[in-house]
Specification:
Structural class: alpha+beta
Distance between the termini: 17 Å
Shape: globular
Helix content: 25-40%
Length: about 500
């Protein structure tokens, strides 16, 4: 059994050579024009753009910058978000689908232009993005997607093969997309925010928003942050105010591995449209060494079974298709998907016009977060953005929104009941070092884990969000909620919302 945790949460390929600037935690009350909660690509880009506009900005990050979803990405900068445009044409209309494409392509162009203007050393490369199919059903999906590209005037090309050692039946490429090193790019944004007079506070947890008078963020540090506008860019919306975001999104987990190969890389970014899905891209360092990133194996958060098996499946796939593949890193990511697959970006509600939200990028956060930042900055600084309407958080599209709402909340109800009646898995005494499981403790159901040093932690497995029972995530060494995707460390601390409070620690750590 592996040590606990096997891989630190920040141990991704991007962390190995990225020098993110560090910032102090909040130690005094702050009054600014705009306060932003969340230090990923959405928050940093929003803060950068508003600071460029001369706004007084404060950004609050609960941990370190980019240690959440942004630091666990495959870092594709693309408007090709899977085989999505045929579906959007049918559900959003040609106008809605075209707006989605143009907004995300604007985000691609924004990153490219910023990198070129400031010569940002972030391994930025223009690449074509490929969808590829290995089944007849996949080919039919690609043909429909190609028809949607034609209707929407999306530059594309049809292919009978791809330049990888993967036998395909067809492929569809979107032209003029890109990839980069996300943390090197984010480091530039953070430094520019400070140069523009903005303030960044790390290790500063936002607890609540007081909206009685001027919007004020209440922090765990004890110091309030008052602002004319507040942006929730913290992955899962920190601010809800009746938006019920936990019921209008689902949390998916996916897995990524990186490895060195001696093969030359032909270029391009690739996504398999059949099951199981595979995302493939590569990075080449200054020494000419090629690292391949392979992602896939997604499942709803907290419902993945033996999560260790997903990494093993990706490694087997890599070794089958790339010569001398040598595994270097493995990590996971959690992404949120809205009811209609379009992100929620904009004013929290028609009532709360000074509160803003950005979430639901469905695994495409590099363009999704940049797009969100451009929209929010324009709305806050200038009153509107030409693409804002399709992303409004208060929208409801009858099909498929209502159908997906019912499906997801029936799943939540089933998981809630299942968690209360499922049997205990094993005894505390049987836990080996580096292992966690549901157990019976002091007359109640609990969760226990034993660290590599033999320290035992026992927590109440009732999620502090809505009372579902969390389960042990073997691969990431966390307690995950199967209802709304909250995640907790082995000692019960909140890693991801919607939960705001930690799991109750039933027994302090003790060696045995």
């Amino acid at each position: 059994m592996s040590d606990l945790p096997k891989q630190p949460l920040e141990n991704t390929y991007w962390r190995k050579d990225a020098a993110m600037p560090a910032f102090d935690s909040l130690s005094e009350s702050v009054n600014v024009d705009v306060a932003i909660i969340g230090g990923g690509i959405s928050g940093l880009t929003t803060a950068y753009l508003l600071s460029q506009e001369g706004k007084k900005v404060a950004l609050l990050e609960a941990d370190r910058l980019c240690e959440g979803t942004t630091g666990h990405t495959t870092a594709k900068i693309t408007a090709q978000h899977g085989a999505i445009y045929d579906e959007f044409v049918n559900h959003l209309g040609v106008g809605g689908a075209k707006t989605y494409y143009e907004a995300n392509q604007r985000a691609v162009d924004f990153v490219r232009e910023l990198v070129e203007e400031h010569n940002i050393p972030c391994q930025f490369e223009m690449e074509d993005a490929y969808l590829y199919a290995t089944t007849d059903q996949g080919v039919e999906k690609l043909r429909k997607e190609k028809e949607a590209y034609e209707v929407l005037d999306i530059p594309h090309e049809w292919h009978e093969s791809i330049p990888l050692n993967i036998p395909v039946k067809a492929a569809l490429s979107m032209k003029n997309q890109a990839q980069f090193h996300p943390l090197k790019y984010m480091a530039f944004l953070a430094n520019e925010i400070v140069k523009n007079g903005g303030k960044i506070f790390e290790h500063t947890v936002a607890l609540d928003v007081n909206h009685d008078a001027k919007p004020t963020i209440l922090t765990k540090n004890g110091f309030p942050v008052t602002a004319s506008s507040i942006v929730a860019a913290s992955h899962f919306p920190f601010i809800d105010k009746g938006g019920l975001y936990f019921s209008r999104m689902k949390a998916d987990r996916s897995y990524i591995i990186s490895g060195v190969t001696q093969e030359s890389w032909p270029g391009g970014m690739y996504l398999h449209v059949d099951r199981p899905s595979r995302s493939i891209r590569a990075c080449t360092n200054e020494e000419g060494e090629t690292t391949i990133l392979i992602g896939g194996e997604h499942h709803k958060a907290g419902q993945g079974g033996d999560t260790r098996s997903y990494y093993e499946a990706l490694e087997s796939y890599a070794k089958a298709h790339f010569d001398s593949f040598d595994l270097t890193y493995e990590w996971s990511a959690q992404d949120l998907q809205t009811l209609d697959k379009v992100p929620y970006i904009g004013r929290l509600s028609p009532v709360h016009t000074d509160l803003f939200v950005a979430t639901g990028y469905r695994k495409w956060g590099m363009t999704g977060g940049t797009n969100a930042a451009i929209i929010l900055a324009n709305v806050i600084a200038h009153g509107s953005d030409k693409y804002e309407d399709i992303f409004l958080p208060s929208r409801i599209h009858a099909d498929p929104s209502i159908r997906h709402f019912l499906k997801e909340n029936l799943n939540v109800a089933a998981e809630l009941i299942k968690g209360k009646v499922s049997p205990d898995e094993q005894s505390i005494e049987s836990l080996r070092n580096g292992e966690g499981a549901a157990v019976h403790y002091d007359g109640q159901k609990a969760g226990a884990c034993r660290t590599s040093a033999g320290e035992l932690y026992i927590v109440d497995t009732t999620c502090t969000h809505m009372g579902c029972e969390v389960g042990w995530n073997k691969a990431d060494q966390t307690w995950d909620c199967p209802c709304h995707g909250s995640r907790f460390s082995y000692s019960g601390d909140v890693i991801e919302g919607p939960a705001k409070k930690p799991l109750t620690l039933l027994s302090p750590k003790k060696s045995s």
